[in-house]
Structures are given as C-alpha cells and as structure tokens.
UniProtKB/TrEMBL annotation, chains A, B:
Keywords assigned: FAD, Flavoprotein, Oxidoreductase, Transit peptide
Record-level GO BP terms: lactate catabolic process
A GO molecular-function annotation: D-lactate dehydrogenase (NAD+) activity
Record's keyword annotation contains Transferase: no
Organism for this UniProt entry: Aquabacter spiritensis
Cross-referenced InterPro entries: FAD-bd_oxidored_4_C (IPR004113), FAD-bd_PCMH (IPR016166), FAD-bd_PCMH-like_sf (IPR036318), FAD-bd_PCMH_sub2 (IPR016169), FAD-linked_Oxase-like_C (IPR016164), Oxid_FAD_bind_N (IPR006094), Vanillyl_alc_oxidase_C-sub2 (IPR016171)
Sequence ranges assigned to domain FAD-binding PCMH-type in this UniProt record: 40-217
Enzyme Commission number: 1.1.2.4
Record-given protein name: D-lactate dehydrogenase (cytochrome)
Family: Belongs to the FAD-binding oxidoreductase/transferase type 4 family.
Enzyme class name: oxidoreductase
Gene3D superfamilies: 3.30.465.10, 3.30.70.2740, Vanillyl-alcohol Oxidase, Chain A, domain 4
PANTHER family per record: D-LACTATE DEHYDROGENASE, D-LACTATE DEHYDROGENASE, MITOCHONDRIAL-RELATED
Family matches, as PROSITE patterns: FAD_PCMH
Length: 468, 468
C-alpha cells in the first residue's frame, strides 16, 4: 500500500468511526502541526476529534492495523514540539473530550476527560470550595499537562502533575484500555503505572481519563513583589524562604530585562531590577505570618521592600502579567520569535547557573529575559530571535546547548517542565545515559510497532543511530 | 548443574567478591527468610552482605550467569513476604550499605546508601535543622521503604516514598548501573524511572543509592488525642479537618479494641472508645491555630474533648504507643500472631468500610483491633490468630479477602502501603485487571531471565497459570 493509499484508507475508516469529525482540511492539518514553540510546522495527514474512549480505542486499533503514527493533541501549548506529527499519521485532537465526569468533594478529587483545560476545570469547580492548582501559564489541557509532567508557578507549594494525578485511563497501542490505579489517595499496589504514563508524552498510550487531586481554596491569598539589587540576593532570599518552612504558594524570579519587557507590555511601572513575585495561601492569620517571615528574610538578603497586591484585582493584574511573560519578552524585540529554555538545577546552584548564563548572554549579544520558578530551581530564558535573520537560530541553539551543559554540570536537568519532545533528545542522552535505554526497553515492550507519537523523547528502538 | 552444585559454585564466587560476607550459616539463612509477617519462613540459599555498588553489580552478574534468584533484604520489617526467598537463591542483605553520602542543606536533600534505617538517618540529620518525615512505624531501611512505596503516619502531610525520593541508583538485572534522575527538585526528562523503581519491590533491579527530599524541622509541634462516641464521628472529623486545609502532620484513628490493647501495653489510661491522635507542625502561632481549628471541628462532630501532649516527653510517649500498636494488639491475645491488613479507600467511603468490617468481625468472632492513617483512608486490622489453632489462619484469610473485596467495591486498593509481596498477587489482579499485564511486560523487558525477586507482585511472565 502506498502512503497515499494508506491515508485514503485511514480517512475512509475514520469517517466510519467518527463521521465528519475526521478531516484533511489543510488549515486544520497545519494548525495541528504547530505549537507555541519556534519549530517549523510538522502537520499530520489526518486530524480526528474523538468524543469517547470507545472512539479512541477504535482509532488506535485502525492505526495499528495500518501501521500509522498516532499523535495525541491537547490545547497545542507545548513548547518542545511534543505534539508535532514528525512522521505524519493521525493527530488525535482530544479537545472535544472535555467533560467533568465526577467531582468528589469529600475526597477532594475530580475525574475528567483529558481535553478539558485547567481554566475550564477551575471554572467548573468555582462553587465547590476546591481548586486545581497546577498553573503552567498557558491554558493547557489536563491530558497534555499529564503527558508532559507539567508544573509551573504553584509547583513549589502544590507539586507537579506527578503529584496531583491519582489515576489514569489509558488506551494502549494494542487497543486495550487500562486504568492505572484506584481512586484511593495512596496505594502500594504494584508498579506505579500512573507515574509511568505521566510524562510519557503520549509515547506509551493515549490518556482518555484523568483523576486529579484537588485542594481547598485558600481562605486568604496575598501577593507581593520585591526588587533586589542583583540576582544573587533574590535567589538567596528564595532559599531562605523555602528553608524557613514557609509554604509559599508561588515564588517567581524575574530578571531586570524581563521587568523591562513587563513594564512595556503590562505597564507595571516597577523598577527594572531583579524581582521576586510572591503569593501566600492560607488562613488570614497564617498568610500574614508567612508574608511577615518572607518580608523579613528578603530584608536580610538585601531586598528593597515589599509592594503588596492585596485586592483580587491587583493580584490578578500581577499574575496575569507573570503569565504573559512570553508576550512581555517579545515586546522587547517586536517581530521576534522566542526559543524558551527550561533547565532546572538544585537551588544551591541556581545563582551560579544564572550568573554564568548572564555572562554567556552578554558575550552572545542575544536578548534573553529570564523568568524562573525559583523555589524549584527551574528557570526559563526567552531567547529572542528575528525570523528575518536565520543565522540567529543556530546561535540560539548553541547558546541553549551551553546552558544545558552548564545545568547538567551543576546536577541539574535539561527540562524542568516542558518535556523532551523532539528538540531535547540528545540532551536527555547526556543527562541520563544508559537510563534512556531502560525507557526505550519499556517503550518497545508497550508499543512494539512504534506507532504512539514516534520520534519523541528518544530515538526509536532499533533506530538509535538515526535521527527522528 | 544440579541445584546443589549451583549453590556451591555461587558460594565460591561470592566469597571471591565479598570474602567472609557471604554465608550459609543456617541461623542467618533462617533469619533472612522471616519478616514481621505471619508467613512461614522462606530462607535463601546464601546470604551476602555487600558494602558497595560495585559489589552489588558483581553479585548480580554472578546470579545472572548462574540463573539464581536475587532477593534484596533491608531491615526485615516488611509485612507481605516482600523479601521472602520463594525460590531460594541469593539474599542480598544491604544493611552494611548504610552510609550518608551527602547532605545538601540548602537544597534540603540527602544522598544515602539504601541500608540506612530511617531512625539512623534522622539521628544523623539532628543538627542540620532538617528531617526525613516518612514514618511507617518500624525502623525500616530507606531502600526497603523505597521498594515498597512505604508511607505511614506522616504521609497525610509529607506524602509517601513516591513523593520523597528524588533519584535512585539501581543495578539492573543485566548488571548495568543507572541513575534514574538528576538532583534537581523536579524534571520532565523522559519516563519517570524513579517512580518505576519506587514500589517495584526489587523485581526490576537492586537499589544501591537513594536521594531523598528533606523537610525543615518544625519550629513547634503539638499533639492531642480526642475520643469519639463512635467510628463515624471520628472519620467525619478527619474529613472536616482535611477539607479545612489544616495541614495536619498526623491524624491517626484507633478503634475501641485497639485502645484497650494500648491501655494494656502502654498504660495510656485513655477511655476505651474510638480515638483520633493528632499532630500539628509549624510555627508556634500556626500550630496553635491548626489545633484550634481541629479542636472546633472535632467538637462539631461529637468529639469528647482534646487531651494535649505538649511536652516532648508526653508526645514521644503517645507516638511510641502508636508505633507499637502491633504489640498493643498482641497484648489483647497473648501468644497470638497477627495478620495485618492494609486496605485504603477514598475517605468518603471510609466510615462505610469500617462499619461493614466491624459487622464482619462480630460475625467471625475474631479479635481485630483497628489502626488507621485516616487522612489517607488507609487502615490496618490486626487479625489476631492463635498459632496453636491452625484453623484460624484460613478464617483470617477469608476475612481479609472479604475486606479487600469490600475496599475494591468502594474504589479502594488492597494495599495502601505494605505492597503486594506474594500474599496479595490475586488481589492485585482483581484490583487492576489488564493493567497487571502492563507491569508484567515491563518486568519481562527489564528482567527477561526473571532473577530479580521472583514470585512477587505478579505471577512470572509466562507462568500466569501457575502459582508462586
């Protein structure tokens, strides 16, 4: 069967399964080949919009029969080409599977279809007294967040997706449908399959249901920003706050360059110095106590005073500006595209990593604002590139490679939260060495035909010499 | 080669690797076939005491060449026969690998060899301002706790081993040594191999190093006990406390029968009614606030008043009594042995599960004190059996089977924290169905010869029809 015939056959069979929800309209194919990253589009041959686990199972069965790749697609907000259709095939857009299936208030958990976004979920939960805290900035889908082991600003307090997924329903490459765990809060029942699929980027199966932990909406929230004379003072403050046991809900680092972008984009009117943005959750008295402790520690480390955002409006303006750092960064170089780096190092090595990186930036002449989840040691640089100047891409890539090498030499990781996708395959090899062979062995055991999101995380089993 | 010749050969080679630290002394073999469980001893053929990763690697290579089982053994405190040598072979006692390799204070982590026990580790950390909170009661080894995904009384606040292991060094069945992750606080770098080995009960490899998260020693700690008229009032209180967002450090349920045992064993002099034992961690003011909230919620739910244990001595007496519930239970029936059950259900189903179980206990005529990590929905029954009355064992087993069926029907798990070992293989099949085939596929990929702790978690790949 030629590739063309295979696609025709797939389209005919998919139409039998989902009717008009299978499409080859070029604009839709192209849209599903793109993400928020700088990579060139890698569109699929067909996009299909399933509405149920049964449909996903049928589609996976079809792709298996036809040996066609299956690429799950959520909200399209990933940053490492995690949902690029590198080998064409069928893109499984799960955005119509966005139902809340069950809210269990007493147990503080919720069962959802994977296509629901985090904001849709929190809107649904508003009156329950509970919320889902993981906030990667973008309004990502829950399935996508699980698949990339996402985290974001609140991970320092509430953990990452690894800590907040209780159980998954997954359609395997051979069409079987499994549930990885029961709804109990904890379990020691065999291998932790939930955590195996969280972060697998769709290479082991398609997530069709997610049971999430929820958290009580805090009685009180307060936010503050604090400027520092240099990055090290800000990082030292973060270390002191974490070590003091203050369960800070968010503690975000923004460098002077990023502050300039934010002033440009969101008219914050803040000094163009390194800043920490804080948020505290808890009872009224406890929030006050946390803030007082953090304020004192900032003072001891050279902080230039807390500015409070106590009303919901001020708070929301502040965190909206933080969520929009991509656009704030782009405001520094209109027309640019950003390569977003994602290293994470032990917090004791963070200042060193940032200072060395600042020197590198100065030498390269790139514009690279910094924003970081400093409580976790994870930070992003927006490497701004002019698409009209193609010579900047290799410079940016070389810079990122040096950054990753620096992070690895400091016991860090090449990705705190964006995943490997296809852009960081060689970094993963550098980072974990033979452990990647273990991943490959697991992949081969669960997807021997290699149809699940091929070319991601590692080179395909048997193709280690090649390149995706 | 006969079995006898193989053992002789192994012993000769092991002596070359570790000298006199390989032994066939019958008392030592027998000691390594036993645990704290009621199961009959299943001793290995040889016990070896490695002192380094290099020695473990050499021993695994030898066992591979000779096709001999390898059973890692920590402190011998597991409860489901997790370290029983079902098929003989080499028992790898890692108790001499108990060095603290690096304390990173600023990063709040520690790298240890797996044989160190949690009490040894906390003694080492005493002056650092940090501690390792996971407390399963017994003074288990860190490697064993990682392997069984242990948790215990503080999991409600600090999580389980899954949440507190940052990285592992593992010797695989083929002798390769991998590190599962870097020391960064979080990572999205490929499959979560750390969580794959946490809870694998030594069936996928031998853990030779563990990097753990640590937590700040709380500025203040306070403990209280509260009696309730019935179990439901106690459970409802626990639900309210958790939902209120109070980050209770421990919230333990003890039923009236267990309280009688504790009064007998530890002379607590408390009313023989269902109790909650609380512990609060934090700043002085915040501990007071948490306690006040919990006290109010207990009052609303029929609690009969808080009794405070504010001095370190009183607190330690209370929690020591809690840690010794096994002996307290045994005090109710001198000479008895205990089968310890371990179901965990969503907290909203806990009261129902406990009440139905109490009826079952009444009908069987068994004596079964209850102790539970009620914040997680996990509880244990000590099914007391007279070893002189062998007919009690099948009765106890049938009771446990009904209990597991009940938990499963309430969306729970057969094991909250003790693991599957060889005693719960059929329960795991009932609980997760085809997902167990996925575990088996992973096992086959990483240990094709089936030498790593055979007969645990599931029937061996290819032997699904048989029985371990």
């Amino acid at each position: 069967m030629t590739a063309h015939m295979r696609i025709e056959k797939a389209m005919a069979c998919l139409t039998q399964i989902v009717g008009e929800r299978a499409t080859r309209v070029p604009g839709i194919l192209d849209g599903h080949g793109r993400s928020e990253a700088y990579h060139a589009a890698r569109p699929p041959d067909v996009v299909v919009f399933p509405e149920s686990t049964a449909e996903v199972k049928a589609i996976v069965g079809l792709c298996r029969d036809l040996r066609m790749p299956i690429v799950p697609f959520g909200a399209g907000t990933s940053l490492e080409g995690n949902a690029a259709s590198l080998e064409g095939g069928v893109c499984l857009d799960i955005s119509r599977m966005n139902t809340v299936l069950a809210v269990n208030g007493e147990d503080m958990d919720v069962r959802v279809q994977p296509g629901i976004t985090r904001k849709q979920l929190n809107a649904h939960l508003r009156d329950t007294g509970l919320f889902f805290p993981i906030d990667p900035g973008a309004d990502a889908s829950i399935g996508g967040m699980a698949s990339t082991r996402a985290s974001g600003t609140m991970a320092v307090r509430y953990g990452t997706m690894k800590d907040n997924v209780l159980s998954l329903e997954v359609v395997l490459a051979d069409g079987r449908v499994i549930r990885t765990a029961r709804r109990a809060r904890k379990s020691a029942a065999g291998y932790d399959l939930t955590r195996l699929f969280v972060g697998a980027e769709g290479t082991l199966g398609v997530i069709t249901e997610v049971t999430l932990k929820l958290h009580p909406q805090p009685e009180a929230i307060s936010s503050a920003v604090c400027a520092f004379p240099d990055l090290k003072a800000a990082v030292d403050t973060a270390i002191s706050v974490i070590q003091s046991g203050v369960p800070v809900a968010r503690i975000e680092l923004l460098d002077a360059v990023m502050m300039r972008g934010m002033n440009l984009h969101a008219k914050l009117g803040l000094p163009e110095l390194p800043h920490l943005f804080f948020e505290f959750h808890g009872s009224k008295a406890y929030v006050a106590e946390q803030a007082e402790t953090a304020q004192a520690l900032a003072g001891e480390n050279g902080g230039l005073g807390f500015e409070w955002a106590s009303t919901p409006e001020e708070r929301s303006r502040l965190w909206q500006a933080r969520d929009n750092t991509l656009y704030a960064g782009l405001a520094l170089r209109p027309g640019a595209k950003a390569m977003i780096t994602d290293v994470c190092v032990p917090i004791s090595r963070l200042a060193e990593c940032l200072v060395e990186t600042a020197k590198d930036i100065a030498e390269t002449g790139l514009i690279c604002p910094v924003v970081g989840h400093v409580g976790d040691g994870n930070f992003h640089l927006l490497v701004l590139m002019d698409p009209e100047k193609p010579e900047e891409l290799p410079r940016a890539k070389a810079f990122n490679e040096r950054l990753v090498d620096r992070a690895l030499s400091l016991e860090g990781t090449c990705t705190g939260e964006h995943g490997i996708g296809f852009g960081k395959i060689e970094f993963l090899e550098k980072e974990l060495g033979e452990a990647v062979d273990v991943m490959r062995a697991v992949k081969l055991a669960l997807d021997p035909l290699g149809i699940m999101n091929p070319g991601k995380i590692f080179k395909a089993p048997g193709q280690e010499g090649g390149h995706p």
